Amino acid sequence: MLIRKATIEDLPVLLQFEQGIISTERPFDSTLKPDPISYYDLKAFISSSEVEVLVAEIDGEIAGSGYARIKKNPDSYYDFEKYAYLGFMYVLPPHRGKGINQAIIEELKKWVAEQGLAEIRLEVYNDNTGAIKAYEKVGFEKRMIEMRIRI
């Protein structure tokens, strides 16, 4: 397995991954607009110095993806001004269970540390137990639960 920075040439595959993420998450959130929708500006992310987009290759095929994005902390009561936000975690179904997410996250953690940041955050749907277990396996802990009500 090779973990590397994503390039503009990877964009067609990454756009398919984005739709895979959306279709996986759609059952967890009835407020998502009907297709087609997009979560990310992947082209801008790939060329930004504030975002590290990584892909995992297996036998020359892009099998997984993820990014860490530097975000400014809006709350002055924390002891850090910036943190990294983890997103775009996706692995093709035939390659799941091979440690791809873990390998990508480990490389993103290195990049985050090189940026002088000490915290990574992410969001995951409460009912997405598989993703929660995968994130806990690499050291993430639950802190806050966002609650919503439609009126």
From TrEMBL:
Cross-referenced InterPro entries: Acyl_CoA_acyltransferase, GNAT_dom
Domain called N-acetyltransferase: residue spans: 1-151
Protein name: GNAT family N-acetyltransferase
UniProt source species: Mucilaginibacter rubeus
GO molecular function, one term: acyltransferase activity, transferring groups other than amino-acyl groups
Keywords assigned: Acyltransferase, Transferase
Name of a matching Pfam family: Acetyltransf_1
